[in-house]
Amino acid sequence: MSAECSSYLNADKVLVSGFSCPRTGGDARAVYCCGFQDVKYCCDDPHSFFPYEHSYMWWLSVGALVGLSIAAVVLFAFIITVCVLCYLFISTKPRSKLDTGLSLQMADSETRGSSVC
User: Fold this and answer.
1) What pLDDT does 16 receive?
2) Which of 51, 79, 106, 108 is the most exposed place for a label (fewest CB within 10 A)?
3) DSSP states of 62-74 as a string?
């Protein structure tokens, strides 16, 4: 069984001529043509998308986990800081009502009725 990889333009816009899989001197199990429009290679798994070893992808996922962990810690610290500041703001407010200096009183019905227009 063999597959044909058609010619393509690589990332540097250089034309790479087509080839058949498995390649001469390559792995005899790599009978499928895998890859993308700008990189093609022979592989043994027809569902393979990347020409890299799995360890490369593992380190990429470990880096992503470390980054997400740091972001989670920063977010958690921000939320704790906001909660502490809100508590301090509420607990240090004065308990009594502030005096604005103006006292409003109800007008008597006598004073309203005695004025002549």
Assistant:
1) 92
2) 106
3) HHHHHHHHHHHHH
Query: pTM for the whole thing?
Result: 0.40
Give the span between the Cα atoms of 71 and 79, in whole angstroms.
Answer: 12
Residue among 17, 58, 19, 11 nearest 37 (CA): 11
Q: Which residues pair with 88 in a beta bridge?
A: none
Q: How far apart are CA 21 and CA 44, in angstroms?
A: 10
- Could you tell me the end-to-end alpha-carbon distance of the chain, in angstroms, rounded to an integer? 113
Q: Which residue has the tokens 């993308």?
A: 36
Both tokens of 13, joined, read 């816009």
Of 43, 6, 39, give the one whose Cα is nearest residue 22: 43
